[in-house]
Design brief:
Shape: globular
Number of helices: 13
GO molecular function: glutamate racemase activity
EC number: 5.1.1.3
CATH topology of the largest domain: Rossmann fold
Strand content: 15-25%
CATH architecture of the largest domain: 3-Layer(aba) Sandwich
Pfam family, one: Asp_Glu_race
CATH class of the largest domain: Alpha Beta
Structural class: alpha/beta
Strand order of the largest sheet: 4-3-1-2-9-10
Radius of gyration: 17 Å
Keywords: Cell shape, Cell wall biogenesis/degradation, Isomerase, Peptidoglycan synthesis
Helix content: 40-55%
Enzyme class: isomerase
Distance between the termini: 20 Å
Amino acid sequence: MKIGVFDSGLGGLYLLSSMVMSKDLSKYDYVYLGDTKNLPYGEKNQRQILELTSKGVDFLFRQGCQLVIVACNTSSAQALRKIQQNFLPKYYQDRRVLGVIRPTVELIKAGDTCVIATNATVKAKAYTRELRKLNSALKISEIPAPELVPLLETNQLAKLEKAVRKYSAIIENKKVKNLILGCTHYAIIGDKFAQSLGKGIKLISQDKVVPIKLLDYLNRHPKIDKKLTKKRQRKIYVTKLSLDFAKNARTWFGQKVKLELAKI
């Protein structure tokens, strides 16, 4: 059985690259699905997000995944709970689906916090709810940044630089101590946010968080870990092929990486 990773596009693939570079996680077999045909998820309603995410998770289970990580923050915010409470008990009682929001907020111990994310993630207020559970006194602000995902997917670097500067100015004006990059896509430009914001704000990026939390989860669930195959195999599926996606895949996984077309 394998570990599955689901996202709308490049963000989850970047997250997977950080997982396979981990000494302790590189031994596992992974299947990635990027729903590139339907991105961005951040502009869709909850019904659409739940339907697409459920189909993506189902596809990964049918590829032999025991555990699926929903790397898309929008899906984690809008669909994860329903999948865990309704979809899994009905169709896959012995499988597990994990999100990325709860592991991310667990790193916040104190200090006013800003979350930058997609429109749908901000609308769901999932980060605010989870942060409040950990510290009810936190001052939390969530900022929608809808243009970042399309710019990243199409590799528009000049416009990305301008957008990062714009959002950095908004974040600095809020006088926060922590910034959560609440979309796995944003981790790709985490260094640009770090440079723009300086050293006064702690930057929390999921490419650093999720591998640590996944390893901890597997250590705490040895029965699941025992089911996982460890042959260092990787399969990457997308629902629509694009040159920009293929270029990034080769950068992160090597020139010989193959992309396969999936129908979900």
